[in-house]
Amino acid sequence: MESLIVTAVVLLRKADQQWDFQPTSDCKFEMSMEGGEFAPPEDVVLGRGVFTLPKTPRPLHLTVRATPTIKRYWPVTARFEYKGKGELVNLGSRADDDIEIFEPAAFQPASSIDFPTVFGFGGTFTSMVVYLSRVKDVTDKALQSINKVPKEGKDWVGGDNWLPAWRSKGRDNVNIISGGMLDGSGNLEFQPEATVAPEVVSRVFEVGDVEAPRLIAVSWPHLVRTHQFAGPTPFLVYFHPTIGQAASDYAGHPYPFGWPYLFFIAFRDTNWFGDPLTEYPGPKGLAYQVAAARRSAVLAVPVNKLGPEIAAILKAEEMESYLREIQAFMFRRNNAYRPPGLGHVALSGFSAGCGLLMHKFLADNQGHSFVEKILKELYLLDPRMNPSGLAAQVIKWADGNASERRVRVYISTPESAYLPVVAQKSFPKLPFVTNSASGLRTLAVTTAATWQAAAKSRGASPKTVSAVGQFGPMHELHAGTLVVHALKNSGFESA
Fold this sequence. Notes:
The chain contains 13 helices and 24 strands. By secondary structure, the protein is an alpha+beta fold.
């Protein structure tokens, strides 16, 4: 007799900073043989599905499906070829597979054992483990959706099918902020123009059974390894501003695959469309900024929803869970089924993404091990709203481990609430960049005039120079260029 035993496992917290995959009985198993109908196992023992395999044919073609009975995990399916005597081969993906359904890497390579048949019991038992996940790859679906451009989006990208692949295209002649940010004359200081081409795997993940964020856009640098000997994975998480202030841009579009959600957050926050200083000051180009700073960090951008914004990920337990699930998903693609856990993590926010979202995250998660032991850096990119409350939470967090935690604050108006970040009592002449004695904290104030002068000196057109002198584009440039400065002065490893 030859049998196949399938066990489902899920990633769960076991103890403080300890996560592991544990078997779950909250899963139904089905199997199809030689393209026939799916059928349940003959027996279920301790949550494991036991299938008896027919004696012929060999090879025997199987399709195994695991469907969780709790909504937070996604179903997965894969095809196999059973050659007999315990040899089960994963057939991988086909070009026409729906990757939301077929996920061969979720099935760990099988093992087998032979028992002598005694009193009718025995034979070859092949055991296989399937990994259920809270995230699934929906990059193809996101690409199809973002390529169907509504009328209001045609001014941005033109017609349909404008994006050939969900990726970060190389950009030439880009101005990259220096590690010091200002020169001796108080002007913004940039490196010589350079080509920036992020070498990343770009994916969009959907999170199961949450209202928001349902999607997380991820840029995973090739240099952040995913093999079995790799070290802990570093992450940079970015909070987009609350979108209620731009409700008209999103109203009437379905969440999460409506065009504005995908374009303005998942894509535009990740990509530059040209040089942000002299051509396109709006897009944030975060994947490019990571590459330009030459630091190793996986970028994760949760996609807001009108109303709840990114409510679920504002819980430290959930944020840690999503990052670990994304990590596990990527490691499985390299046949590594026991990822090393999270490494250095930084949290960045822009505008109301600081004053509302980052503030709530810090205030609500005091004492959580993710915030206390894994989160190492905060980047505040021209924060708006609630300066006193936000500054108090940031300083409280930073003081909790002052010898390790980094804080970088970049503002366009001299808000005194942030002076204690660098133990400063007043603002010197603007613009300025001030570091704490340890170098772990920065407070920078750059005005519209500062940015306008920079754009002009770097060859921007009169139209762009005029635009950069206005609040909106200047405000956006904080997030679109200064993450490079924060990363250059970060604790992330050099790439």
